[in-house]
Design brief:
By secondary structure, this protein is α+β, with helices and mostly antiparallel strands. Helix content is 34%, strand content 26%. It has one domain. α1 (2-18) runs antiparallel to α5. It is elongated.
Length: 183
Amino acid sequence: MIKNKKYSAITFFLLLFVSCKSAQVVSEKTEVPDAIVDKYNEFYSKPNEPDEVFRVLLSSEFYEIRQTAYEDILYVKDDPAGNQMTSEELEQYNKVDYFGRAVLKIELYSKTGKLARLRFLRSSGISEIDRLISEDITRWHFKFQEGVKEEDLPDIIIVVYGIVLEKNISREEAVEELKKYVR
């Protein structure tokens, strides 16, 4: 277990060394932070996965859930405090510029809408981020609309996460952190 954590940390920090910070001025007024506008547009412009029901864009400054299917049958109870907490927890990984996707298959109990099983169809590539996504999705409260027949309810849904990390430390600081972690 410790060996896997060590390799995961080394992989994470190696991504740091190959990343390169770039900036672009965006004149468009929106609630999306300027630093992630391009990634926001790229993420939401991609075609939906088969059976995709939700898309989540997650950064240390931004959290948004969009529903892409079953709007009249299924919804997620709004939880702004939980969303904010997840974004804040992502802050500790802002050591590298990274934009990735994770795809999750979620099985729900059809009578209650509770989470039955969660499986990654595509990992984000960083195990710590995958753990954070798992914790995030398990706090969601899925609800079915009243009066919908049980055979019309989805029992399997796909959730796609877009993860945006922004480098906020220097290369020298990263080397020092890596040295501390590996010891």
